[in-house]
């Protein structure tokens, strides 16, 4: 099912959206002013792991999705690899663009998820109110993905 409104989301995914919107305000973005928040839940764990984007003076940035995934790995360990069941991304942009992960973040989500991983993009206004929302899967956002499952496991 592809949700198009907040009310259509499961209670668990509504909680992810609220968390992504909240953590977005913590972003450190002195160059771009482009605040992004992300929240995810991994299989077998009720903890919500959050992240926001962080920029620095040489224009390198940690993306919100990357930070949330790193926080999950730091808390749970990398082996066995945490499996992302669902992730929400919230942002505000003047242009009204969709709030889906960039290619780099899609690949990172793929490393810890699968084509069934739920991805929720949330566009908010300056007050933090939801303007649009769309739920899809990583498989829809990253078809024919390449991942660690291609490597030979000994």
Topology:
Elements: H1 11-24, E1 36-42, E2 48-52, E3 54-55, E4 61-62, H2 64-76, E5 84-91, H3 103-112, E6 118-124, E7 130-137, H4 138-141
Parallel strand pairs: 5-6
Antiparallel strand pairs: 1-2, 1-5, 3-4, 6-7
The coarse silhouette is globular
User: Which CATH architecture?
Assistant: 3-Layer(aba) Sandwich
Determine the CATH topology: Cytidine Deaminase, domain 2
**CATH homologous superfamily, by name?**
Cytidine Deaminase, domain 2
The secondary structure category is alpha+beta
Strand share of the residues? 25-35%
Terminal CA distance: 37 Å
Descriptive overview:
- With 154 residues, the protein is α+β, with helices and mostly antiparallel strands.
- It has a single domain (6-145), classed as Cytidine Deaminase, domain 2 (3-Layer(aba) Sandwich), CATH 3.40.140.
- The chain is built from 4 helices and 7 strands.
- It has helices at 11-24, 64-76, 103-112, 138-141, and strands at residues 36-42, 48-52, 54-55, 61-62, 84-91, 118-124, 130-137.
- The strands form 2 sheets. It has a 5-stranded mixed sheet with strand order 2-1-5-6-7. A two-stranded antiparallel sheet has the order 3-4.
- Strand 1 (36-42) and strand 2 (48-52) form a beta hairpin.
- The model has no long low-confidence stretch (mean pLDDT 91).
